[in-house]
Amino acid sequence: MTPYTPRPIDPTVLKELRSADDAGRGMVPVRDEEGGAPLRCCLRRSEPGERIALVSYAPLRRWAADPGAYDEVGPVFVHAEECGGPAAGSGYPFPGAHRVIRRYSAEGHILGGELVDTLDDDAFQRAFTDPAVVRVHVRAVEYGCFHFEVRRA
Fold first, then answer.
1. Mean pLDDT throughout 75-101?
2. What is the Cα–Cα distance from 53 to 78, expressed in whole angstroms?
3. CA dist 75 → 46, 98, 109 (Å)
């Protein structure tokens, strides 16, 4: 069993984002005709025909003591309605692409990052070597979008 667990966006936060996102806009659901969108609510790709929404999300805003300039807002896909969250034991989501692992302090300041070819326990072990690191975000290389969070075991 892995000591690092991928965490989707918290269900309470998802409820808020579905009402008004972190940029203050209301959600606009769409039917995903093609599928494949990386859903941050259940950490899987969307299926054709599912109702999803692209919302603005500020991942540091709800936990960081003082993110300051690091309090960024970016786009994430979520189900338009409540979903069951990630499947148990589904491993690290969205495999097969380069990712950036970004390390954060309790204040929400970036303590460093690493470009990785593979999301695995070794990558997260390296990220948490520094005791000041309290959370790690996995982000897309292409656009910098937030994918999911990992905390210490």
1. 90
2. 6
3. 16, 19, 20
